Amino acid sequence: MGYTPDHKRMKPDINADPVVKFHKDRIGQMNCVITGNPVKALHHIMHVAGKDTRRDDRYIVPLAHSLHNGRSDSVHLLGSEAAFLDTHGFDLVHWAVTEWEISQRLYRETMA
After folding, report:
1. pLDDT for the residue numbered 53
2. For residue 61, what are the β-bridge partners?
3. N or C: which end of the chain has fewer CB within 10 A?
4. Which pTM does this prediction carry?
5. Mean of the per-residue pLDDT values for the chain?
């Protein structure tokens, strides 16, 4: 389905990995990490050491819409995860990295 280029310049789709799908499904069932309310958005962390700048589903955080992009103190309107940490005292990057590690372990355990 679709065109597949002959060159090797395109990076593989990290989101096609079954561990990533398992992780996204697991995080998608969680409530907002700040309010505890049902989630309307998964925020993708863009700046993680060793990660390229493409959005991928390994580093995601469940947020209520208001904290994702819905008010002046939301992560997108503040402009960065660092500003969100300064404002709310919650480290989105650390949370996302930790949950990705947990998902990898849980996936290995369920597949063993």
Report:
1. 60
2. 43
3. N
4. 0.82
5. 86
Cα–Cα dist 24/100, whole Å: 9
Mean pLDDT of 41-46: 91
Length of the chain: 112
Tokens read off for 68: 């994702």
- 10 Å CB burial of residue 99 (0-12, 13-18, 19+) is buried
Nearest CA among 35, 25, 111, 18 for reference residue 73: 35
Phi, psi for residue 49 in degrees, rounded to 5: -55, 130
pLDDT of 75 > 80? The answer is yes
- Averaged pLDDT, 15-43: 92
**Which of 4, 10, 5, 101 has the alpha carbon at shortest distance from 58?**
101
Chain centroid offset of residue 20 CA = 10
Q: Are 57 and 16 in contact (CB under 8 A)?
A: no
Q: Which tokens hold the place of 57?
A: 């589903």
Contact assessment for residue 34 and residue 64, using Cβ atoms and an 8 Å cutoff: yes
CB 20 within 8 A of CB 48: no
